[in-house]
Amino acid sequence: ARCYSLAVGTPGRLLKLLRHGREEDGGGGALRLKHTELVVFDCHEDSKGWTVCTLKDTSRELMEFTKEGVVGELEKRKGKIKLAMF
Q1: Does 25 have pLDDT greater than 80?
Q2: How far apart are CA 53 and CA 33, in angstroms?
Q3: Buried b (16+ CB within 10 A) or exposed e, 21-42
């Protein structure tokens, strides 16, 4: 299996990749964060002042992705993974 050190996508797509495969074999999904060093959320406001954190279409999925994928890694690997919002 190939590993890539970069993943870019909408919160919904990243959440699907994180969950993909977990149900069938109980293992990790197609997106695994166990070697990730930095997770970046692009919180730039659009022309109407919305961000991924405030837009209805993305905010719920962003929080689910954070809870299911990022928080556990932050707890397990203190100091080895960082979360950035810009």
Answers
A1: no
A2: 21
A3: eeeeeeeebebbbeebeebebe
